[in-house]
Specification:
Blueprint (H helix, E strand, L loop, with lengths): L6 H35 L5 E3 L16 H12 L2 E3 L7 H12 L8 H20 L9 H12 L1 H12 L7 H7 L2 H32 L10 H35 L32 H6 L3 H39 L16
Antiparallel strand pairs: 1-2
Helix pairs in contact: 1-11, 4-5, 4-6, 5-8, 8-9
Amino acid sequence: MEQDIPKCVLVFAGISVVTYVFAASLLQYAYGDVVGTLTMIESDKQRMYLDAETPTDSKEPSDSSDTDEKALLIERQGVLVKQRMITSSICSASRHLRERAGPFSRLRGFGVYLVYQLSAAYFSIVLSNTILDISKPSTPFVAGFFANIIVSSTIMVWTHVVISEPSSKLWFRRMREVGFKTRVKVIPATAIWAFAQQLHVYLPFTLYRSLNIDINDLKLDKAGALKLAAVPLLAMALWVLVVVPARVALTRVQASLLPDSYQSIVPFDRSFGGKVVSEANGGTGILRFVDAWKSFDWHARRRLLKVYLSVIAIQVGLAIAFVTVYLAGCTLLFKFTGHFETRWEVVTLPDA
């Protein structure tokens, strides 16, 4: 006789799932989005130069101490010092943020991030149900593309909030400071990123439809395994080769538009190696999309890959912990409610 699942187990399951989704989302935001964004803009060749023209004593250094002699040489000639990158690891980036912006700094910009996500979803729904033909399979992707372009200024303000020092100005006040020219400048880069993002979803979706994959009737042979693996492999390849470069380039383009009145929370070259020329000097005042990716060298790409792999490891650990706690909790609740009993039945075999 079948027994209903106890209500306490259902409540526990619901709370566990909501808690897991909430924790996983916060971890993804704190390390994948915030630390990842800082990794995309931190200069890879930060150096500290001591002024070579510092007034010094004209006397020759004494032989009493090698340390004094080295110190005098530093004062006279200057020294080139390579600094450890702040985003070289998640731990160092988190420690830097905590020291500069407080204990909740890893969630900086979360408010404007929610506004961006909700606004993009709203405009996507409106476009799908008004201007575009909702019956076409491509409509959600086209709507998502244009929705991200509409909220491009919000995405840029989020990037500026994340990469800059703490400010007393709330994000919507910073939004009003963004001029019309700046809003227009960031649209092309946002459009390329939005296209890459939708392509990352649309192509695997199209492949899934073309292969006519039916999980229930799928044969576990070589052909079935290839069909089953083709969609996630394509999605992963597009994410690595298309989405990540587009996101890096967009973030660096947005960072090039950070107003001079705001200091960055991690050091980065605002001119991006001289590729950004201000409008006062006859330039555009913005980093070109192609230059944004080219100036992101291989050492910086390895740091970003390290951050993403660390986030994946954290998410896997969280998932394992969740499954362990969930199964243990359900087992205990079933035992306490008497629904976890082993029953033996005697089966009489017929005579041969």
